[in-house]
Write a structure and sequence with these properties.
alpha+beta, three-stranded antiparallel β-sheet
Length: 71
């Protein structure tokens, strides 16, 4: 049994968790943030950022699916 609890979808996820959820490479992820094509991070501390889960969920939900692109 895993000791990790499921992500809180009303909370904030750290960058590493969001990268895993989206399947993006770190470089692609950072590029999307820089050009404003991904939700902006929120500063949690001087050296820590996170992303609001509802905003990330919305971004994922609005991505075209591969089957939609190929038709």
């Amino acid at each position: 049994m895993s000791s990790q609890s499921p992500p809180n979808r009303d909370g904030i996820s750290r960058m590493r968790a969001v990268i895993r959820r989206t399947g993006l490479s770190k470089n692609s992820f950072n590029r999307l943030i820089k050009i404003g094509a991904f939700p902006s991070p929120v500063r949690l501390s001087q050296h820590c950022i996170g992303f609001l889960d509802p905003e990330v969920d919305h971004w994922i939900a609005t991505r075209p699916r591969a089957r939609e692109i190929s038709q």
